[in-house]
């Protein structure tokens, strides 16, 4: 009897060891997934700003009449770039807008501020890892820096008016900040915003009330974030449509070239159920030829390109902007 009992106990040990090994593997996998999500970062967008004091009748002489906020796209900026002389990427599309506008107006009339942020989009399924910052971290940083600049300028220069423009990831950022302002929750009052233009906006959703007015052809597709609404993988949170620009809707414009998957994605083409395929399509879309050619993309029969139209639009707003008193 004693011999048999001992034999039975010995036979149970391998099964117990196997269960312990499986439990250890499960714990390791869970911890690895949690670390992946934490390191990739959550999307953090600026919250509502409290209302400021009543506006004075004049502002300091150092204040510009107008601030133009330019937000570059993915791989067109970095966190340490000079906002007044951006050089992170000499081929940045937004330089074709900001440089001509800066040259048109004196400093006392216009301040052009190019938002410096990491401007990257790491592929979370790349093997080996590509070493870039995640979309969530990049977009969060860009949105915070854009909002902080607007809020700081308004605090120092309460009569300065604003023009916003952005491309690609920068269009998402500029559009999000403008939508907050239009909802009365932004860093500056809506009546001080002269207008906003987004080029290749990943949250484009033309057709709903309160959306931006299309400049040039209006493709039938939607922004990649709208097509992928609900996709949430480490470092990439697709937030869907904005729901309009609120009181800024009559001052909001958007440009999208047909075939640019960043802003012209078929609603069913990018499927959150097919996470790996959808993420790979999304990452590749930022470098597709259509997306990189807006400096030559024509938006009217006169041959006006997307960047030329944006320059003309912004210049008109700045020329007709108020001339606040200075003290």
From TrEMBL:
Q: Looking at the keywords, is Transport present?
A: no
Which residue stretches belong to region Disordered? Answer: 128-149
Quote the InterPro entries the UniProt record gives. Answer: AB_hydrolase_fold, Cutinase/axe
Presence of the UniProt keyword Membrane in the record: yes
**Biased composition annotated in UniProt, kind: Polar residues:** 131-140
Q: Which family does it belong to?
A: Belongs to the cutinase family.
Can you say what this protein is called? Answer: Cutinase family protein
* Upper classification of the organism: Bacteria, Bacillati, Actinomycetota, Actinomycetes, Mycobacteriales
